[in-house]
Amino acid sequence: GMSAEPVTPDRPLPSPVSAIATGLDVSRPLPQPASTTRLNLTLGDTVAKAPSIGAKTAAKLAEIGIVTVSDLVGADATTLADKLSDGRITTGTVQRWQDEAGLVLTVPGLRGTHAQLLVGSGYPDVDALAAADPAILCARLLRYSMSGEGERILRDGAAPDIERVKSWVEAAQSIRKAA
Predict the structure, then answer these.
(1) Which of the two ends of the chain, N or C, has the fewest CB atoms closer than 10 A to its terminal CB?
(2) What's the angle, vertex CA 154, arms to CA 92 and CA 62, rounded to 5?
(3) Considering only CA atoms, which of 109, 134, 103 is closest in space to residue 35?
(4) Whole-model pTM?
């Protein structure tokens, strides 16, 4: 299908010279997109849109009645793993899928790949993210990105930078305050 254009493109900000040329006010900081950034996953999405779940796994899940992201996050992990009867998919695997989906469902602008890195680095939910020190989180993400598992997740992509990590922590904190 057609994939939507990401809301915050990974392009460098315009240089002050080009900004002045285009009449952009450089004396004030650029607006932070966090508040307008939308979620990359909804409960009504098909389970194939959830992080870590490809077409084959989605087909297996559909056979046991797990069709939407809502079905996935609402399921009991042990029961789901048993029903799948695939030795490679343990209760822990299902819990990881649920945690990854939960993060993307909650944190605006967070992509599936980054949710996989967060969960793999020991930050499974919004509470862990809200309580994180961005510098430590960034270091852990970097370390995990260099592991075999992290490299498989990122493929050729770069690990998220400190600014992006800070934006997730701040988003998680504001979600916690609102709750």
Answers:
(1) N
(2) 45
(3) 109
(4) 0.79
